[in-house]
């Protein structure tokens, strides 16, 4: 980490919670499900799809996992009741991945089954590299039984090409993103050029395959490359969509929508917003830089 980023990250815990909240409010729908629902309604009015995420990860007891499972079920039912165009994004460590594999699998299966009944989709986020193997195993097992489940793949991981190739026979739904966690150089590309190079390479593989590809980035270089490949392979929108995080580069999102493409916005909500924001800032000092920029340019 460069010294400036290190300084920023070390200073963050002393920034008043109120300031962090002000900053985070752009990126997080709010604490309650109603907050997420009203954000999704507005997005749908702008012809944007959504994926709702309940903040939280790395739970340490089965009761916390069941609580998260019940909240996710409520989210799915509420999406249906309000006739919203939104799916669900989940983190497996919130549903017990670090407690017990089978327990986690059955929790996720319950959600995917409910989503299937409600004509909806569950997207599995990819967390740090200690969870990659188990996450992909759960995904493969589920995908062999259900067609309404997707998984994220991180372009910074050197293993991702071979992971994608092992998933392709299942006609997967894959969200390609750069990756947000701090990983060692032995397993991950660290430099932006290398990550972008791998992202383009993986995107090229995905867009030529039977996968449904979710292109999750705010990086114009990568979005331009996606446009190029979409035109080259003459792809229709049943093969891909773009995805962005709530509050990040909305003008670029508007352009994607006005170009006639599908765009899905990741909408996180929940009580754990402070811990979530701080973790993300620590994990990605570049984001911490945005906090400082927003504090000093207000
Ligand atoms: P990059 O970080 O280079 O950003 C490009 C530009 O976008 C920046 O120059 C800046 O202008 C702007 N920008 C990016 N992030 C910003 C922010 N927070 N605030 C303000 N401006 C910002 N990761 C993961 O490990 N597992 C996962 O499951 C997911 N899931 C996921 C879903 C969706 C829908 C998205 C969009 C992203 C993820 N990610 C993720 C996060 C992803 O891996 C990555 O860390 C971020 O998207 C930032 O990378 P970019 O590709 O946007 O490029």
Automatic annotation (TrEMBL):
EC numbers: 1.5.5.2
Binding annotation for substrate: 91, 279-280
A molecular function (GO) term: nucleotide binding
Enzyme category, top tier: oxidoreductase
Annotated transmembrane regions: none
Binding site for FAD: 126, 154, 192, 217-218
Protein name from the UniProt record: proline dehydrogenase
